[in-house]
Amino acid sequence: MQELVRTIASALVDHPSQVEVNVIEGEKSLVLELKVAPEDMGKVIGKQGRIARAIRSVVKAASLREGKRVTVDIVQ
């Protein structure tokens, strides 16, 4: 999951070396915190949050195999 989010975010931003994905794991859930450069924040979120919603949809579809609930948070 972590590599999936990192790959998608790196393709979207101008500074792919600054993309960080932190994993917070619980019993039945997984939280992925996506951190990018401040000037790339708008590219990851998109107009009206469309890009962020699309990233979350892809991750949710991929997480069905693992049987865990996965949440993607975009942090500064």
Task: Explain the layout of strands and helices.
Blueprint: H1 2-12, E1 20-25, E2 29-35, H2 41-45, H3 50-63, E3 69-75
Parallel strand pairs: 2-3
Antiparallel strand pairs: 1-2
**Radius of gyration over all CA atoms, rounded:** 12 Å
Q: What proportion strand?
A: 25-35%
Count of alpha and pi helical runs: 3
Element-by-element helix/strand order: HEEHHE
Number of domains: 1
Assign a percent range to the helix content. Answer: 25-40%
How many β-strand runs?
3
Give the overall shape.
Answer: globular
Give the CATH level 1 class. Answer: Alpha Beta
Instruction: Please state the average pLDDT score.
Output: 93
- Would you identify the CATH architecture? 2-Layer Sandwich
Poorly predicted ranges (pLDDT <50, ≥5 residues)? none
Give the helix/strand class: alpha+beta
Strand order of the largest sheet: 1-2-3
CATH topology: GMP Synthetase, Chain A, domain 3
- Any idea what the CATH superfamily is called? K homology (KH) domain
